[in-house]
Amino acid sequence: MTQAPAPVLSEITQALCTALILMVPLAGAGLALIHAGLGRSRSAAHAMLGAVCVIAVAVLAYFVCGWSWQGFSGGPAHVFTASGKAWNWIGAEPFFLRGLPLDGSRAALTAWLQMFSVGIAALIPLGAGSDRWRLGASCASTALLAGWTYPLFAHWVWGGGWLAQLGVNQGWGYGVLDAGGAGVIQTVGGLTALSIAWILGPRRGKYTADGTPAAIPGHNAVLVLFACFLTWLGWIGLNGSGSLLLIGGSAASVTLVAVNTTLCAAAAALAAAGITRVRFGRPDASLCANGWTGGLVASSAACAFVNPASAAIMGAIAGVLVTFSVEWLDARRRVDDPAGSISVHAVGGLWGLLALGIFARIPRDWVLNGMNAGNSSQWLAQLAGVATLAGFVLPMTYSLNWLLNRFYPQRVSAEGESHGLDLYELGAGAYPEFVIHREDFRPR
After folding, report:
1. Which residues lie closer than 8 Å to 26 by C-beta, 6 or more apart?
2. Domain span at residue 294?
3. What CATH number is given to the structural domain containing 386?
4. How far is CA 258 from the centre of its chain?
5. Three-class SS of residue 119?
6. Span 169-188, mean pLDDT?
7. Residue 238 forms part of a structural domain
8. Contact residues for 281 (Cβ-Cβ < 8 A; gap 6+)
9. What is the pLDDT of residues 291-331, one digit of tens each?
10. Cβ(208)–Cβ(214) under 8 Å?
């Protein structure tokens, strides 16, 4: 099935979109530094090399088949018919980007943005698997994420798939909307992080025999907090380019997107700081960083559809959710997530999708997913997106990684974890001038 072609971008919009897309890798750099800083010093180089490797694998897997499965709204796709209605379920583009003119068109810019976006999604599970996830296994898991899981859900939301069709076929608002990827990028990555944390299990020494969690603080808070500024700039690029390419926003709307993104992050960081100040007597740097990033994540879905006051409220709620989610997963569910990736990206992303249904006020003259339905029943579409992520994407990504673990064990050996992944897998540490290992270390 081939749909109607998307509108042609003006030269001004092309230039602005190109500039915004070039900012997106800063978000990846920020996440990589956060993961490294919140992990142990003896695995810092491994964390950064892992970030480089999974981005490389993600881009290549997406190039080979990911874009084919995702496609873009208006491109060829496979459909099925139910109750007399056509439902689009997967893209049908050629493999290896064949037939895609790389000429600055909407489709070409979307493919370029998606290469960066899938790389960000692939980075997220690294934070949950920090200090114990083998480099080769993380690359293999990334191939599954970028080659299948991500493009399938991205097609359903951004490629004209069945979640986007809920407006036309069911009368649920405009169908699922997600301007910057709160669901497609962040939640898919966050749910994969949850799967990895379950499969790997906690780090050695994280929990006592009675289940009490032991504090294993990150080794470099300065690195983590500096990374917050990088993620801020990267998210403005991500949300801005997404609003232009994926929901048909105008160049003038990018200002609103940038303001809302900033307000959401600021409110979330201050909420986290306030909660930790009240509960622990002083602000917690790592949780404030998690709150900041969680606010950025929560802003992504609705950044083009809400006013600044609503964005600040969304951010404050995200900061509360992320802060308490980190503690709940760690202390109550015994899920060891050193970087808080699950709370930041899965919880923050799910809240961002729901928040769009609550706070968005979409002008009636704005055509989205082929219709101009106003705001009626939009929350039903957003809830359907959340249910699909929790009820389908999570079991699927867990099953794929569970099968991978049967054939290629993902966790490093006890010896490797004890020695640190830098020396065990790379043969050199990130900080050779400092003694960061126990005296009983013996090379392999």
Report:
1. 230, 231, 233, 234, 237
2. 11-426
3. 1.10.3430.10
4. 18
5. helix
6. 96
7. yes
8. none
9. 999 999 999 999 999 999 999 999 999 999 999 999 999 99
10. yes
